[in-house]
């Protein structure tokens, strides 16, 4: 059944997946496109420092791309089920959790494809420039981090999409409502309690989620292909 | 016959005069046109300044209104602002925010500046503080530092702003002494330093002496920082400026000789060649290899193409090639010295403007320079960026959260038909 799930998902998403593979492969190459030492010139210390600075401009694109790939895979995995009101799934002689698990594994398998694309692109990018002394390339580590980021974003959206559409809307609405009204409530309480003047609850929660041990820690931190 | 000869001769001047009159009229016409264009151009420029003038007048008018309002309130006994003293600083804030201002400044002072016993500029500076969307007019004479923050800003951001303002004041305090250490490490030792960035800079600097510094040689760290570098005569202290031209010439020659020695200590011959090859000003000289630049262009060719090290040194001395680690890195050494020196370190640092950077740092930190540099190096090494060193624990955390969300997916709300 896993193979069927994989084939169905692949059939549905292959054009979009091809685009993500191209994007993942090209991003490291774009990052290093203006870096390195021109032919005939010796590498300068200032150039080395500029390389690190130049790479930093591209750091935000990697987690964003991973998020986009994860979201695309997750939503597309349940697309047909939602359209057909889960009739096919309910008619199968398997438990719901088995069906969900196999679908999850199929999506995980497809997530490896853009990750492999990034791995290839990162190695090619690292090999294409001559790094000055003191700098190192980390293509394998970048690809591993990218994979984790895709899988995590995939799992989050997959779990939301696994329920009914109403459930997804409720969850998203609750999160947005908490953010919006949380900020307003914080400001209101700050006029009476000095504690809320010092602490922004919504911001604190957000920061906890984005740093260890929060769930989205993998998206933050260093995404450099090239560093000391 | 005479008339036959004279008439043409008489006609010529007439023709010439007519021609001259014609040329003069044309020239006058051109001159009038040129003047008219110039006048029009000037008028256009003056007209373009009018909006700026209007804006400046409006701002002045608004300020006068605010000052008059403040004066009326003060005369009527309506106090809208209050003053508080925190450590060496005087802070003026709206009445409803004075406690908050005191709390913030006290927090920042206690955390970052508690070791400062005295500072002339801090005592002279008045800080106005407002963390609000409704601004109260606060008019202070010269020497004030206005800190205004929008209400939506977080407290940590406001505290950072306060910290930066105090650091800036201390930076001016240091510069005002015109001490050697202030020239050596221009900038503020009290501003927030990202030591990971410092490590990156040192690690990527292509110089023999920085590699030795990272490898553990404290003396190499001092050399890379330019602690023993010769001081240029033109940046010398005021007491040294009253010298004769011959004395200045001798100082310049001595400086150049010592600078060449320092370059040899800092960089290998290949690195010096690379510095020349990558220096845009020198490359420009090479491209414009004519006239006065011919000599320098020839030296550039000797250095880059013929690999003559002396030519490279001459060029680097000419463009002022300094120690590998610049002022932004030297600030961190001063910051570390102040931290190690504890209470009164700031006063000790500013105590003797004539002291060399080594003497000033030793006096401020109460440590020998080798020990100070060893500690500073250890601090920088400990702040090496964790590029991917924590991948295993972070990966494990990601896997755990993945399993958690996968579990939620298998336990989500039931599907229903219809």
Number of strands of chain B: 4
Radius of gyration of chain B: 34 Å
Shape type of chain B = extended
Largest sheet of chain A: 2 strands, antiparallel
* Multimerization status: heterodimer
> How helix-rich are the residues of chain B, as a percent range?
55-70%
Helix content of chain A: over 70%
The side-by-side strand order for the widest beta sheet of chain B comes to 1-2-3-4
Give the DSSP E fraction of chain A (strand runs of 2 or more residues).
under 5%
What series of H and E elements makes up the topology of chain A?
HHHHHHEHHHHE
What is the mean predicted local confidence, pLDDT of chain A? 83
Question: How would you sum up this structure, described in words?
Answer:
The complex is a heterodimer of chains A (228) and B (418). Chain A has helices at 2-31, 45-56, 61-77, 79-83, 87-91, 96-128, 139-161, 165-190, 194-198, 201-210; strands at residues 136-137, 226-227. Chain A has 228 residues and is an all-alpha fold. The longest helix of chain A has 33 residues, at 96-128. The mean pLDDT of chain A is 83. Helices cover 73% and strands 2% of the residues of chain A. Chain A starts with a helix and ends with a strand. Chain B is mainly alpha-helical and 418 residues long. Chain B is 65% helix and 6% strand. Chain B is built from 18 helices and four strands. A four-stranded mixed β-sheet of chain B has the order 1-2-3-4. In chain B, a hairpin with a 2-residue loop joins strand 1 (81-86) and strand 2. In chain B, helix 11 crosses helix 12 (294-304). The longest helix of chain B is centred in the first third of the chain and has 74 residues, at 2-75. Chain B is extended. The termini of chain B are far apart. Chains A and B meet through helix 2, helix 5, helix 6 and helix 7 of A and helix 6, helix 10 and helix 18 of B.
């Amino acid at each position: 059944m896993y193979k069927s799930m994989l084939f169905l998902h692949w059939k549905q998403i292959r054009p979009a997946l091809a685009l993500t593979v191209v994007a993942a492969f090209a991003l490291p190459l774009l990052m290093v496109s203006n870096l390195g030492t021109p032919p005939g010139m010796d590498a300068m210390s200032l150039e080395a420092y500029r390389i690190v600075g130049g790479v930093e401009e591209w750091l935000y694109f990697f987690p964003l791309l991973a998020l986009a790939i994860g979201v695309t895979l997750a939503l597309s995995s349940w697309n047909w089920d939602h359209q057909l009101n889960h009739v096919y799934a309910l008619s199968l002689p398997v438990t719901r959790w088995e069906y969900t698990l196999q679908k999850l594994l199929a999506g995980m398998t497809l997530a490896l494809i853009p990750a492999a694309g990034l791995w290839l692109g990162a190695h090619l990018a690292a090999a294409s420039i001559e790094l000055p002394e003191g700098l190192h390339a980390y293509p394998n580590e970048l690809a591993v981090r990218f994979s984790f980021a895709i899988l995590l974003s995939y799992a989050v959206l997959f779990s939301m999409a696994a329920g009914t559409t109403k459930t997804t809307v409720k969850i998203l609405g609750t999160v947005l409502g908490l953010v919006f009204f949380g900020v307003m409530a914080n400001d209101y309480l700050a006029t009476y309690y000095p504690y809320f003047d010092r602490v922004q609850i919504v911001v604190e929660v957000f920061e906890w989620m984005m740093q260890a041990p929060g769930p989205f820690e993998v998206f933050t931190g260093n995404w450099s292909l090239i560093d000391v | 016959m005479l008339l036959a000869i004279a008439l043409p001769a008489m006609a010529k001047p007439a023709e010439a005069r007519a021609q001259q009159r014609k040329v003069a009229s044309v020239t006058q016409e051109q001159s009038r046109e040129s003047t008219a264009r110039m006048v029009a151009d000037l008028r256009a420029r003056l007209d373009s300044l009018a909006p700026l003038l209007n804006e400046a007048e409006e701002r002045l008018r608004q300020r006068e209104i605010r000052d008059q309002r403040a004066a009326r309130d003060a005369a009527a006994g309506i106090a809208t602002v209050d003053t508080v003293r925190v450590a060496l600083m005087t802070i003026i804030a709206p009445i409803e925010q004075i406690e908050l201002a005191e709390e913030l400044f006290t927090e920042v002072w206690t955390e970052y500046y508690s070791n400062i016993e005295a500072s002339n500029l801090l005592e002279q500076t008045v800080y106005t503080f407002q963390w609000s969307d409704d601004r109260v007019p606060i008019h202070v004479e010269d020497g004030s530092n206005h800190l205004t923050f929008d209400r939506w800003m977080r407290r940590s951001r406001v505290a950072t702003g306060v910290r930066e303002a105090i650091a800036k004041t201390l930076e001016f305090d240091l510069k005002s002494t015109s001490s050697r250490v202030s020239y050596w490490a221009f900038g503020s030792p009290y501003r927030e330093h990202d030591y990971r960035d410092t490590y990156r800079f040192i690690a990527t600097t292509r110089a023999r002496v920085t590699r030795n510094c990272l490898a553990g040689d404290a003396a190499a760290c001092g050399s890379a920082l330019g602690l023993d570098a010769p001081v240029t005569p033109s940046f010398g202290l005021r007491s040294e400026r009253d010298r004769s031209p011959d004395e200045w010439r001798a100082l310049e020659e001595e400086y150049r000789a010592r600078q060449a020695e320092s370059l040899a200590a800092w960089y290998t011959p290949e690195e010096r060649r690379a510095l020349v090859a990558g220096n845009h000003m020198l490359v420009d000289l090479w491209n414009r290899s004519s006239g006065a630049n011919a000599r320098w262009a020839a030296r550039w060719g000797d250095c880059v193409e013929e690999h003559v090290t002396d030519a490279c040194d001459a060029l680097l001395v000419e463009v002022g090639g300094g120690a590998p680690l610049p002022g932004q890195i030297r600030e961190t050494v001063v910051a570390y010295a102040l931290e190690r020196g504890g209470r009164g370190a700031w006063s000790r640092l500013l105590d003797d403007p004539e002291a060399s950077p080594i003497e000033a740092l030793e006096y401020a930190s109460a440590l020998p320079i080798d020990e100070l540099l060893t500690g500073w190096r250890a601090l920088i090494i400990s702040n090496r960026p964790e590029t991917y060193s924590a991948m295993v624990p972070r990966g494990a955390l990601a896997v755990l959260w993945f399993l958690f969300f996968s579990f939620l997916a298998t336990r989500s709300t039931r599907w229903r038909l219809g």
